[in-house]
Amino acid sequence: MKHRKKHIWASIMILLIVAFDQVTKRLAESALMGGKIVTLLPGAVQLRYARNTGMAFSLFSGARWVFVALTALVCAGVLFLYVSQQMPLSVGLLEPGGAGGRRSGQSDRPGAVRLCD
User: Fold this and answer.
1) Average pLDDT for consecutive 10-residue bins of the chain (117 residues)?
2) How far is 72 from 95, CA to CA, in rounded Å?
3) Structure pTM?
């Protein structure tokens, strides 16, 4: 029963993190699209809308199938390790970023939304 409760909480946390990620991306699209720039700290932090069609630093830009396959493998590995109790919950919570990033790239405009400059 203890493990089942832990799995339920982990699932809820993952869903909440992915939901928060998607909401912030939609807010960025609605508030920043069209070249708008929001300055949070003058000279230090600005928010602007950009799409990244690759991975970090736009590496492998346009190779979407590579990211879909890689995300599926990582998700399967995290799930296997978590269920077999070889990985703590804190490490498993890192995965929603990858899942959310791939989800945001499934719109009609490919690429992940990045909003902090």
Assistant:
1) 75 88 89 88 89 75 82 84 66 53 50 54
2) 11
3) 0.51
